[in-house]
Amino acid sequence: MNFSWASWCGICVAGMDKVENLAEKYRNEVRFCGINVDKSGAIPKAKRIVAEKHLSYPQVMAGLGDRDPLWRQFGNVGSNNFNPPLYVVVNSTGTITYAGDGGTDLSDLERELIRDLRPSKSAGVAHETSE
User: Fold this and answer.
1) pLDDT tens digits in sequence order for the chain, 131 residues long
2) Which domain CATH number covers 120?
3) Which of 46, 76, 86, 91 is most buried by a 10 A CB count?
4) Residues 80, 108: contact at Cβ < 8 Å?
5) SS3 (DSSP) at 61
6) Which domain holds residue 91?
């Protein structure tokens, strides 16, 4: 799951606590990554936000703003139209199964995470018992 955000995006910063809660809740099943889409001059502010929020998941900060290749690839997925925040769920086969704003209180995002985890849990249990 990746989360594209910017320091100037109030909704992004306000939602980070919820993202952190999901990252903690699913830490053994989902890899979270934050992708900051600020320009280079705003990176110090973005790093302060990450430190203040005590985010446990890795952050990518290239300082390229709207020229960032990750943002250019994912920023227009779904109905996002290059507006952060953008949450993207990529399942274990590399398929994008969700891209959007996460829904109210990130309920859409969590619902998709749970849906994607169900097959993985079954496969993981079978794999663990066969070893």
Assistant:
1) 778 899 999 999 999 999 999 999 999 999 999 999 999 999 999 999 999 999 999 999 999 988 888 777 776 665 556 678 889 898 888 888 888 888 888 999 999 999 988 865 444 433 333 33
2) 3.40.30.10
3) 86
4) no
5) strand
6) 2-130
